Amino acid sequence: MQQRLSRVTTTDGTELAVATVGEGRPVVYVSGWLSHLERGWELPPERAFLEGMAEGVRLVRYDRAGCGLSPATGRPPSLDYELEQLAAVVAPLGPEPFDLVGASLGALVAVAWTAAHPGTVRRLVLYGGWVSGDAVSPPSAREHVLGLVESHWGLGSDVLTDIFAPDAPAAARARFGRYQRESSDAQTARALLALSYRLDVSDLLGSVRAPTLVVHRVLDRAAPVAQAEALAAGIPGAELVVLPGRSHLPWAGDAPELVATIRRFLGLRVARTAPGTLTPRQREVAALIAEGCTNRQIAARLGIDERSAEGHVERILLRLGFRSRAQVAAWFVEQQEAGRGEVG
């Protein structure tokens, strides 16, 4: 898949970058705290998650003001400003209802939009969200993190990466730390994180009328699962699905199961490749890993560039739930031996 970049403008002149992937009915994705449409697409596990979401539909994402490809403005972050930006993004989609997926901070924005614009949302998915920012962590912890982001953005981004994606391979965590720093400056990052902590949508939940799925990982280190339970309890008829895992970022941990859960709720076909299996190309790469090949050597053997080889390796780690190449090599050898045993 390839993403197509465009721009929209809010009523006050704010310019936003928008990315569209796939074809079909629109699924609008409101990201968490920070985003960068290009850097996210270049991060193999995030791209795998997005491609899984976009199969058979038109996935629409955007960088909020001051993040990624969207320039900063003089306006401070607020829920009203978030809704103005989302309005500009969905305006070109036409009058038909769309599916709305909100992750982390985006879940609160999605709740507020659905409550304020009944009939525009076909189905609503809330991942890793919360009702009240006050309940996410103690005040002392919040102030510590805000201060760290403001005074030492490099260290702050690394600390937050460990909180957001403890299940991701080390290489993916390192790249995501850089990705966060490239997504915004320290001032914008702090302001958006502070918004996350102060938002409270408890008064809006009862006004949500769209069919709603609340999905959360049981040991999410950034947002306690009790907040997901509160979201589901407050939205009439909402369905709650709690998945295993510790990671807050949707693409970390068992992302294929998360994608399958969301797609089933949206009435979309679920990928036939079962978790723990590899595509033919991924098996080729796994075989070369078992031979001890580096990414550069894999690229040369397969006639692809080194970045593509790196992407294949990270997708294999994600698919198999492993954290190292040694685990992939051992798995591949076991598969080969099991296959020879069956033939014998």
UniProtKB/TrEMBL annotation:
| UniProt keyword annotations, A-Z | Hydrolase
InterPro entries registered for this protein in UniProt: AB_hydrolase, AB_hydrolase_1, AB_hydrolase_fold, Sig_transdc_resp-reg_C-effctor, Tscrpt_reg_LuxR_C, WH-like_DNA-bd_sf
| Positions of the HTH luxR-type domain | 271-336
Report the GO molecular function annotations.
hydrolase activity
Q: Which Pfam families match?
A: Abhydrolase_1, GerE
Identify the Gene3D superfamilies for this entry.
alpha/beta hydrolase, Winged helix-like DNA-binding domain superfamily/Winged helix DNA-binding domain
Asked whether the keyword Hydrolase is assigned, the reply is yes
Q: What is this protein called?
A: Alpha/beta fold hydrolase
What is the native source organism of this protein? Answer: Leifsonia virtsii
